[in-house]
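ESCALATION

Customer reports they have been waiting on this structure for their group meeting. Please prioritize. Original submission:
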Amino acid sequence: MFTRNLTIAVAALTLLGLSSLSAVADEKPMQQMQHMGIDHQVAMARTQADHEAIAKRFEDEAAKLDKQAGEHESLAKQYRSGVGVGPKSDAASLATHCDNLVKNLRASAEDAREMARMHRDIAKTLAK
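Update from on-call: job pushed to the front of the queue and completed.
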């Protein structure tokens, strides 16, 4: 009997905690929740503004990835010209490594932009 009552009490407290968490989340705009992981931010998204904030987060991530790709593009050029490589280093391998990073970073940036677009589409449907 004690175990059953304890289970019911824990379940009730859990539900109470989750419902109060949801109420708090609804009170704060999603833009103020940027410190949350993206998975939590998506799980809590309910409004047009929430999905716009998520889209912005993906756009920001795409910009960071593009910047990193540009840095590695510059590094590849430097390695090919011999700048920053030691006499026993394999400059061609270093440049190829950077080329691969550029390709992957640009693809990731494009994926992030696509995620942003999809969340903007969700936001549009919520605006209706």
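Sent to customer with the following note: The two ends are 51 Å apart (CA to CA).
Escalation resolved.
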